[in-house]
Specification:
20 strands, homodimer, Creatine Amidinohydrolase, Creatine Amidinohydrolase, Chain A, domain 1, 364 residues
C-alpha cells in the first residue's frame, strides 16, 4: 500500500513490530502538518504495517484533528470519564502484540496506558528510525530554517548593539528575547543561554540576575528562534572592552575547529569523521583539557535531533542533512568559548545557513 | 531522616516502592531550584525511601549540577560512550526492584534504560503523588505567579489596542507575542491561541495566516507569559465592530458560568463541586450542546497540572491551590467564547489573580 504512511509501515516491518505509534511532537507534525499541545491528555495515532491506521483523540481536540483528514477510525475520550475505555476500544479494534514508539517523545503515562490496554505488549524504542525520517530536509524545510536563522541573526545584531558593561546576564537575556520576537520569532527554539565570565564555562548555563558583566569578560550567547515549525541554533562568544591574550588564543582555536568542521563535510563522510576533524584541532591545542562536548547535533523541527556529530557515530552524511557545528572550550571557574553555525550538507560539500561574522568581536 | 527529600521518601513508602525517580521538569525544579534543558541526554535523580540519593548526569551538565549541592553519588556519562554503563553503575550502587516515576514527564527512552539496568524493575506511575507536592503554592510562589499574570494582562491590553479589522490571526498572534516579551515574559507558558470566527470554536486552535478578521467576528485570545518559573494562563474573547444578539447571549452565559466558579470556591469543596457549579450554568442555557471542555486545571510551574477541575474529581480544594476558571461554549463552524481567570483558593474563599475586565468588549 502506497500512502502517506508508507515510511512508517516500512519501519514497522523493519523493526518486526505490528505498528508504529506516534504522539504529538516533531514526527507527528512532519507527517500531518498539524501541531497539538503536549499536555496531560493522550493523543496517539497507530500506523500498522498493513491496513488502516487508527487514533485515540481527546474529545476537545476532535475539531483540530479533523484538519488531518485522517483515514482511520478515531476513538475519542472526555476528561470526565478518562481515557482507559478509549484505549480498550482501540485495542479491540486493532489487536497488537508489539509496537514501535518514539522513545524521546512519548511519555511513560502513555506507555503505561498502552501496556494496560494491550496486555503483554512489547514496546520497542523506534526513536532512531522514526526520527530518522526527518534526517533529510526538503528544499521547503531548508527555506523555513533559513528564515528562522535570519531572524535570529538580526536579533543577535540588535542585542549586541545594546549590550553594556554593568548589565546583568539576565538583563542581556531579556534584550535578546525581546529582539528575537521583534524580528519575528514565533517561539524560542530553546531557553536561551546568556552567560559571562565563569558562567560561560558551563555549556548549558542559566543567566544570572546577580552578575553584572565586566570589562574583560567573555559573553556567550546561545539561542535561536523558531518559526514555521523550524529551529535556529546559533552561538557567538564576544568579549567586553578587551580580550586577554589567552582569551584570543582560545577563541582562535575554537574558530579553527569550527572551520575544520566545514572543511570535513561532504556527502559520504560520517558523523564520526566530522567530529574527529573538529575535536582533533582542539586536542592538538594547549587547551585540550577544556573539551567538554561533542561537535554538534542535527537541527530541524527539534533543536536536538539526529545526526549527532560525535566520534563513534557511523551515520553517513547525505545532502539535505542539517547539523550544528559548535565546538567549544570551557575552563571551569574562568571562561568558555563556543562558536556555533548551522550547516546544510549539499551535493558537493556543505553550506553554512548562518552568516553572522565570526571574527573575534570586542564590544566597547 | 528529615531532609529536603522527606516528601519524596514518604511517597516512596506510600506507594510501596524502593525509590522515587525525578527527571528535569517542574517537580525537579521545585525541589532543586535549578532547571535543566530537556533533551536527548538522560539526567535522573533517585531518591530512596531510606538512605542517600544518587544521580545519573550527562558529563557536560556536571558544572550546572554542582549548583544543586547534591548529597549523593553522581554517575556521569559522555556523549561519545553513551549512558548504558552509567545506568549499570548506578544500578549496582542502588539496587532497586521498584521505582515511582513522573508519568507525565519521564519519556520512554529513560524508562527503557532503567528497565534494562534494573532487570525486572517494577515502574509505578507516581505522577499524581509527585506532582501533588506542587498543589499548595507558597506565598512566594503566588507572588511569582502574580507577576507572570500582571505582565500578561499588560500584554493583552497592549495587543487589543493594536487589533484592527483586516489583520490575520497570525498577525494578531505576533502582536500578542511581542507584547508579552516587551512586558517582561521570559517564555510563553504555552503556544498562544489566537482564533477568530469559526476557528474560535476549536478549543486548541492555531492562528491562521490566511484568515483576516472581519466585523462581527469573535476573537479569542488564550495565552500566558512565564516568569520566574511560573505560568499565567488567561483567556478573553472580544468582538470586532459589533456582536450579534446571539453572541452577546452566549458571552453572558459563559460569564455567568465563570462567576459561578468563583462563588463555588472555598476550602473544603471538591474539584467536582466547582466544575458542577460552572457546567450547570452552561447546561441550563440554550447552548448546552456547545459544551466541550471541563472548567479548568491547576496552574503553577506547569500550565496544566493538578487539580483538574472536573466532575468526578474528589480532590478537596485547599487554601494555596491555584486553578484556571475557563468555561467556554463552542459552536462548530460558527464561533466560540471562553473566559479564563486564574484563581487562588484562600482561607475564606478565593481570590482572582487575574484582573483584566470581563465586560463584553467590542473593539471598534
Amino acid at each position: 500500500m502506497t500512502d502517506r504512511y508508507s515510511e512508517h509501515r516500512q519501519i514497522a516491518r523493519d523493526l518486526g513490530v505490528d505498528a508504529v505509534a506516534l504522539v504529538p511532537g516533531p514526527n507527528f507534525t512532519r507527517l500531518f502538518h498539524q501541531a497539538f499541545h503536549v499536555n496531560e491528555r493522550p493523543l496517539v495515532v497507530l500506523i500498522p504495517a498493513e491496513g488502516m491506521p487508527a487514533a485515540l483523540v481527546p474529545n476537545l481536540e476532535l475539531r483540530s484533528f479533523d484538519l488531518l483528514n485522517f483515514e482511520g477510525e478515531v476513538f475519542d475520550w472526555r476528561d470526565q470519564t478518562g481515557y482507559a475505555d478509549a484505549f480498550a476500544a482501540l485495542a479491540r479494534h486493532m489487536p497488537l502484540s508489539s509496537v514501535a514508539v518514539e522513545g524521546q517523545v512519548m511519555r511513560v503515562f502513555i506507555h503505561h496506558a498502552m501496556t494496560t490496554a494491550w496486555p503483554g505488549l512489547r514496546v520497542v524504542d523506534g526513536e532512531r528510525q522514526i526520527a530518522g525520517l526527518r534526517l533529510l530536509k526538503t528544499p521547503d524545510e531548508v527555506a523555513a530554517m533559513e528564515e528562522a536563522i535570519r531572524l535570529s541573526e538580526r536579533a543577535l545584531a540588535r542585542t549586541l548593539d545594546q549590550v553594556r558593561i554593568g548589565q546583568t546576564e539576565k538583563e542581556i537575556e531579556q534584550i535578546l528575547t525581546l529582539s528575537l520576537f521583534t524580528e519575528g520569532a514565533e517561539e524560542h527554539a530553546f531557553s536561551p543561554i546568556v552567560a559571562a565570565a565563569d558562567n560561560s564555562a558551563r555549556p548549558h548555563a542559566h543567566a544570572r540576575a546577580d552578575y553584572a558583566v565586566r570589562a574583560g569578560d567573555a559573553l556567550l550567547l546561545d539561542f535561536g528562534g523558531r518559526k514555521g515549525g523550524f529551529c535556529a541554533d546559533i552561538t557567538r562568544t564576544v568579549f567586553l572592552d578587551h580580550a586577554s591574550d589567552e582569551a584570543q588564543a582560545v577563541y582562535d582555536t575554537v574558530l579553527r575547529a569550527n572551520l575544520a568542521g566545514f572543511a570535513a563535510t561532504r556527502p559520504g563522510v560520517t558523523a564520526h569523521d566530522i567530529d574527529d576533524a573538529v575535536i582533533s584541532v582542539l586536542e592538538a591545542s594547549p587547551y585540550a583539557d577544556r573539551i567538554r562536548t561533542k561537535t554538534g547535533h542535527g537541527l530541524g523541527r527539534d533543536v536536538h535531533e539526529a545526526p549527532y556529530i560525535m566520534r563513534g557515530n557511523a551515520q553517513v552524511m547525505q545532502a539535505g542533512m542539517v547539523w550544528t557545528n559548535e565546538p567549544g572550550l570551557y575552563q571551569i571557574g574562568a571562561f568558555g568559548v563556543r562558536i556555533e553555525d548551522d550547516v546544510l550538507v549539499t551535493e558537493d560539500g556543505c553550506r553554512s545557513l548562518t552568516s553572522f561574522p565570526k571574527d573575534l568581536t570586542i564590544l566597547r
